[in-house]
Amino acid sequence: MVEHGDIRVVHCGGSKINFRDPVITHDSRFLLCASGEAVKVFSTSTEECIHELRGHTGLVTGVLLRPSNHLQVYSSSLDGTLRLWDFTDGILIKVGQRFQLVAVHLPQSGDQMVEAQELSAVLSGVNPNPAAIAFGRGVRTCRHKDNKKGGWNTFTCVACHPKDDCIATGHEDGKIRLWRNFNHKKEYTYSTLHWHHSTVSSLCFTPEGTNLLSGGVESVLVQWRYNQESERDFLPRLGGAITHITVSPDGSLFCTSHSDNKITIIQSCVKVSAVIQGLVKGDSIRTDLMMDPRSKALVLNGKPGHLQFYSLQRDKLLYNLDIVQQEYIHESGLQQFEVVKAAFDASGSWLATVEERHQKAAELELNLKLWAFDEQTQSFVLNTTISAPHDAQITAMCFCQPTDSQTTLLVSTSKDGHFKAWQLAAPAHTEGPSWLCDFVSAYHGLVPECCSFSADGSLLAVVFQEVVTVWSPSTWELLTTLSQPPGAVSDLCFGRLSCSKYLLGTTASNLLCWNLLTCSLEWTTSMDVRRLVADPLSENMAAFCYQSGSTDLFVFKPSEPRPLFSHKAVCSGKVTQAVFAPREEMLESCEESSQWLNRSQLYFLTQQMVNNISTSAEEKQNENVAMTPFYLLLGKHRQQQQEHQDSDSSLWAERTLLQTPAHVLPSTSYLCSMFVQSLLISVSDAREEKAHAEEEMESEKEEEDSEEEMESSRSKPELAAAAATESDTPALTKAQARELRRVRKLDHSWLAGLLDS
Question: What is the enclosing helix (H) or strand (E) of 313?
């Protein structure tokens, strides 16, 4: 987390869960894995994340169960610390510092942080890949060593038999070798197992040593019988290439990590029982970073041929949308369809996708697909497929915001030198609506790079290399062209609300702003802007600039010369994608410097994870627990005269109850009885209130009777005078008469004493 005044950069999800071997607990109930700067604890039955063990300030590099206590786990990190956790309660127990690739002895101490003094070197010249190291019985170690005789025989992974003097090694040629008698210098022997057609990426023996598990790019888990290597079982079609294999201590569960950031839990190589899917970033993100207007999920291309809908609030994949609708074959060098572009309309009713495939001896295969959201299935359904929409790669596409007089439009630009407008046509007979090409245009043979609609849909800007053209979508007339300093424009955004007269673009070295009323360059500044995004709910824009190995963030309004917010080195490396996401509820109690975050949140993607620009007030708000009756029982809402004191006590009670280990809390029956009693209405109190109300009614009735008697005892002259007087004034209502009687009973003696003094 990086702090900058009231603004914080928060790692909100999307970290790799396949970075290192996962760990299964002894009772097979939980699975632990390294995930960025944290250790995640998952349930093997529900796939839900139970805890996140946070405390490291660097990438977590390893997770290991403590042999002497099965409820504790060690974690190592690039921050130079080794931490001991109670993973069932998510509590940090101890921190050890100053360790390298050595054996570390943590001294017995009551302090949470200790310095490890006893260090002993184990290996030297070890490959940094953990698959290159294995520990066998008698703490024998094996280390990675390349075979100099041939590259195809290079060692890729190693595993030690738990009981026998046997070492299994995987190689790049797809072979597995079992080494024996290696205690003798020149008398070692080995046998060869071969099924994999490519590199063996992971090996693992079962706890009893009866089976050997192997995996590779084929995404097939192979189970070999030890000493009966001709007998083997297969579990195919597990997804991406297998990178790690783990077995539970009791041997009941197998676990495979995959290249598509997924962990598969398997019941003894028989069937898949659970799948834990992380955010898939792959080698490159071809689509833009988008937010689904309906589900508020992060959307980008995921596993091959799919779009992934990922919840950042839960840090969990919601679902995959199969775009290509073809079985993906995991084979290196095989060209297959990939999703390269995607765009939503403002309401989330339509989704446009582009898929392409390059063949060595054939032309580019290209498909444009339009998907309609189905209210019944709550998913997108394919509506229209347009084969070969352009003659070359599509460079950009965007939807137009429809108004009452406009139909939904989609514009696509291509390297063939044309941009096309696709219009949603009215349904014919019983068929539903479909998409047709409405307009095609070009500009002096230049290649269009990007396009953008204005907020009201009245203007379309298309960039042809160094020239920005502005069109009218209603007539498809070229309105004007905008000039700029030399350099191709790579990004384009219209201003919004009060800044709608501005159009902004970026080049390799400049940020440009045009005034559309004067058709001239309003201002320009020299900076290397890698991403330019506009907030859909305000005039604000965010520019991510790369320099000196890190990325700077600037938030500004096109109409003002100075930025609203700037943050140097918001992250190391480059920001690949960014997006503003509208908030469900407007954020309040922000400082002036962070008011640009009131309506929207800013997310950006790096090579490691998804980050969020957040405020300190928002972080405190997110720490609160949901308003349930049980939460109210803890004293969150006490008497208002003790508001300040009670808020502190309620927060203490809340954290104490929800974060304290269960074995030191009061019994469940005691807590439940308190909870039930708080919901009940006391019978005695209800009876007392009823009796009190009846007494008041009787007293009022007696007063009315006595007053009527007094009125009847008046003399006739008095009654006549009173009648003459009352004839001039309106009659009192029953409520007014009752209030008058109440006032008569008041004691005004204090006023007489005041007048006498």
Answer: none
